[in-house]
Design goal:
- The chain is of the alpha/beta class.
- Helix content is 43%, strand content 17%.
- The protein has two domains: 204 residues, Glycogen Phosphorylase B (Rossmann fold); 161 residues, Glycogen Phosphorylase B (Rossmann fold, 3-Layer(aba) Sandwich), CATH 3.40.50.
- Strand 2, helix 2 and strand 3 form a beta-alpha-beta unit.
- The longest helix is centred in the N-terminal third of the chain and has 22 residues.
- The chain is globular.
Length: 391
């Protein structure tokens, strides 16, 4: 009689095909280990996952447990909280039913779902890897101030989850240091960059257009009011370079209004990952605005795609943040202080050809390899399957 395969559960609310970066990476990870492990994926269903898997011939050998999604990014805070609680209950029920010995869980959604994974693991002697792609409730508190008592409670809850994990994974050394300091965890912490959206099928133009792109979430953490005011002043002062925006977020209506009133601004709305890649590859500069404080707790997801696109990166943030350091150390672009006047002057300098890009890295081969799907999936395999951490 053959020995039962070890059981692994992968938990990430956002999944393929709606989320083509982390969702695709986790699907590849699940598929690669479905022969050796009993792999389950617990996720939210935004696009009839079973039909999508059958249509594209994906997910062979992997068992999926989709939970109906009750909210989207534009939903109210109350609806999103209800959705997170609903998903949390679903996760716990599936875990108790499947009884995996290993669990991978990310911060999507944050705090509550990782906490129930910790509870399950303590009750049933399982081991879990906690992947902190951002750190909550701190990241949330930067965007929307959280009630002080609630903030302290959720931070305590998440700290407990960190302390009992077999392994923690995060994106930057700064985030790893903050996790260690905040939680006093003794669990090993690995730093792993998120992969980039695939550019294999994107035709790179022979010559890039002068101008700027922004592809990603236009939310509270992206300094959108400052960026939009700078574009308005630059254009009203005679500036002619184009600005192309793609993505959703709470400032989508403001972007649409700016595009309607300024001929050099275009807002494409929500687009596919491939279309976003094409936009990034078409223009010379990609805009990367980020609030300074949040760089301690997160790293902008669009940064990897910007690297692959080959566009020069204009990081709009403080000079001492992790984002600024990453741009400078890898010679990806320039760092501009988050001031309207300075940003307007930068736009004008680009238009006049006064920004020296000769010292910047346009090849980026080493960094591209580091940000590939293959490297990310292989790292997960090494950390979770081949060399699992011990409590």
């Amino acid at each position: 009689m053959s020995k039962a395969r070890p059981r692994l559960a992968i938990i990430n609310r956002s999944f393929w095909p709606i989320y083509p970066v982390i969702g695709e990476a986790l699907l590849r990870f699940a598929e690669q280990h479905a022969d050796d492990l009993d792999v389950s994926v617990i996720m939210q269903d935004h696009a009839d996952i079973r039909t999508q898997l059958a249509t594209h011939g994906r997910g062979k050998g992997v068992t999926f447990y989709p939970c109906k999604a009750l909210s989207v990014s534009r939903s109210s805070v109350a609806t999103r909280i209800l959705d997170a609680v609903f998903f949390m209950v679903w996760v716990f029920l599936v875990l108790v039913w499947k009884r995996p010995s290993q669990v991978y869980v990310s911060t999507d959604p944050p705090v509550l779902v990782p906490f129930v994974v910790m509870c399950y693991s303590r009750l049933f002697g399982a081991r879990y890897t906690y992947h902190l792609q951002d750190i909550h409730p701190e990241a949330t508190n930067v965007a929307i101030p959280v009630n002080r008592l609630a903030f302290r409670f959720f931070r305590w809850l998440d700290g407990m989850t960190m302390r009992h994990a077999s392994l923690l994974i995060t994106i930057t050394d700064e985030m790893a240091a903050y996790i260690r300091q905040r939680s006093a965890t003794r669990a090993p912490i690995e730093v792993l960059s998120n992969p980039s959206v695939a550019f294999e099928d994107v035709a790179m133009p022979p010559q890039r257009l002068p101008g700027f792109t922004f592809c990603g979430n236009a939310g509270r953490l992206q300094r959108m009011p400052l960026l939009l005011e700078a574009i308005r002043r630059y254009t009203d002062g005679g500036g002619r370079l184009p600005f192309v925006f793609a993505g959703g977020g709470i400032y989508a209506a403001d972007l649409k209004a700016l595009a309607a009133s300024h001929d050099n601004v275009e807002y494409l709305g929500l687009v596919s990952a491939r279309r976003a890649a094409e936009v990034n590859a078409a223009y010379q500069w990609a805009l990367l605005p980020i609030e300074d404080e949040v760089t301690l707790y997160a790293f902008p997801s669009k940064s990897s795609s910007y690297v692959y696109s080959g566009a020069f990166i204009a990081a709009i943030c403080g000079a001492h943040t992790s984002v600024a350091g990453w741009v400078r150390e890898n010679r990806l672009g320039v760092v501009i202080d988050a001031q309207v006047d300075g940003l307007v002057n930068f736009f004008r300098a680009v238009e006049r050809g006064e920004v020296d890009t000769s010292v910047l890295d346009t090849d980026r081969s080493a960094l591209k390899e580091k940000l590939s799907f293959e490297v990310f999936v292989a790292a997960l395999a090494r950390l979770i399957v081949t060399e699992p951490a011990h409590d």
